[in-house]
Each structure stands twice: as structure tokens, then as C-alpha cells.
């Protein structure tokens, strides 16, 4: 995760008491293959190519949207996905299993701004666009050839892992609290292909975007 990991403990309690509708998210699959969209909060939905799904999210909510691939579910909505699986459920109720590309958001925060990003802190599985539906602010895309060019040591079925997931050391996870995290060959690999994405926990100043509160958004798989 990106900034969500930092904000979640402080903000999650707010969302329980703030029920006013804040934003609509239009989630569209433009991939040539089926994507099982997931949202927390929101659940999950199978999207064949060109299909869309719309969710409404309350003010103050911190959440994420992602796509799952190569899934199989039974009639009760239980099964598994090759990437992005969330405890074997079609209707996601928890975080996903890496690798997966995350569209993260925190609605109506300080100065009445929405915060959002595309995070590769959990790796990459599907190209994504995360943008406002109007031109009041800018969006972000991550469409580089990451799966195709993924270093062998980061490869996973259907995706490309973040090096922190594979190696678990501070060199790649940047979790020692020092405030410094020099670039590595792996961070440069992701940065060259998705320059505006959240690559490591140090990226908050450069990879978090803002829009006025009550903005509506679109999340597009394979834009």
C-alpha cells in the first residue's frame, strides 16, 4: 500500500461516523480479458471486457480499488484468484494478496481535499488509470510493460512483485524510520515504467494527488 498505510489508523474511525455520499467511482474493464474488480469498501464484481461497475463511497472513507485475474468462484462466491485474491471471496471484505496494482484514496481529508494514488507497493498485475471524471484536477496512470519486463527474481504468476514482498529487507521496504531510502535497481525499474506511481513508503510527496472533496472518479483497467 501507499499513503493508505499511514492514514488508515488515524482516519478509519472517521468513516464509521460519516455517512454522507462523497464520491462515485466508475470502474471499467478495457482489458481484452476478464477482470474481477475489487473494492474495499465496496465488495467485488466480475467485469468482462468493456463492462463497468459503479460504487458510491461515503465522505471520510479510506479505501482502495484493484483488479483480480484468473479467478474462479462457485455459486456462493467462494473461490480463488491468481492475482489480487482477497481471502477467496468474490465480495472482498479485506485486503488483497500481492502482487496487484492498487488505486488508493482517502476522501475529504485536510483542507477538504481528496487524496489518491496508484500504488505499486504491493507489486503490479494490471495497468490502471485513476482519474477525476472532470478536468478540475489531474489523474494518474500506470501503463508500463511491467509484467512483460519484470526481473526474474520478482516474477509471480500473473504479475510482478515489489522487491519488499520478495526480500523483506529495509533496503527495499524502507521501514526503519530513518526517512531515507536510496533508489535501487528495482525501484528504478518500476519508476521508469510508471513514473507517477507510489513505489515505496517514501513517495508521499511526489506520488499522492489531490482533488476537491466530492469529486467523482473513474478507475480503468488497461486504459
TrEMBL record:
Cross-referenced InterPro entries, in alphabetical order? Osmotin/thaumatin-like_sf (IPR037176), Thaumatin (IPR001938), Thaumatin_CS (IPR017949)
Q: Where is the signal peptide?
A: 1-22
**What is the disulfide pattern of this chain?**
31-222, 71-81, 86-92, 137-211, 142-194, 150-160, 164-173, 174-181
What superkingdom does the record give? Eukaryota
In Pfam terms, one family for this protein is: Thaumatin
Q: Keyword check for Disulfide bond, yes or no.
A: yes
Keywords for the protein's UniProt record, in alphabetical order: Disulfide bond, Signal
As for family, the record states: Belongs to the thaumatin family.
Protein name per Swiss-Prot or TrEMBL: Thaumatin-like protein
- The organism encoding this protein is Sesamum indicum
